[in-house]
Design a protein that fits this description.
- By secondary structure, this protein is an alpha+beta fold.
- The protein contains five helices and seven strands, in the order E-E-E-E-H-H-H-E-H-E-H-E.
- The longest helix has 14 residues.
Length: about 160
């Protein structure tokens, strides 16, 4: 049995935080706001996986409250979700992602993000794809007010 899921996340920039995407700390003057480390890419992948398995969304699993420690690494949350899917008999076939950001440039960090995501998912890096696009200065993302990420996941029963 094959199942697909779609994930989307968006975070505004916030001062005095590191920018973390795909578990990679990217040199940039602002990070992403959020209860966790704000890693929109990891959050989109989590939602894609949970959607494919019919298990809700990232906000249900990791609510921004006492149950989820402030500043928690989103890559660790992704590892937890991947582990739960494995326990339920699911295997990740592949994940495809897009980061939407006017800045910073994602290309220099793409392979590290891909490796981090693959490691968290327990799959070879060739099963994970990270792409990026700039919004051509249109809208809030084009003004560099934040970062959005989209992900699709394909899972199958073992």
């Amino acid at each position: 049995m094959l199942r697909t899921g779609l994930g989307y996340d968006l975070h505004p920039y916030a001062a005095e935080r590191p920018l973390v995407l795909g578990g990679v700390e990217v040199a940039y003057p602002r990070g992403l706001a959020g209860h966790s480390d704000g890693d929109a890419l990891c959050h989109a992948v989590i939602d894609a996986l949970l959607g494919a398995a019919g298990l809700g969304d990232v906000g249900e699993w990791f609510p921004p409250g006492d149950e989820t420690p402030r500043g928690v690494r989103s890559l660790g949350l992704l590892e937890q979700v991947a582990g739960r899917l494995r326990e339920q008999g699911w295997r990740v076939v592949n994940v495809d992602t897009v980061v939407v950001a006017q800045e910073p440039r994602i290309a220099p960090h793409r392979e590290a993000m891909r490796a981090n995501l693959a490691g968290a998912l327990g799959v070879p890096p060739e099963r994970v794809n990270v792409k990026a696009t700039a919004p051509e200065r249109l809208g809030a993302l084009g003004r560099a007010d934040g970062v959005a990420a989209l992900a699709t996941a394909l899972i199958e029963r073992d």
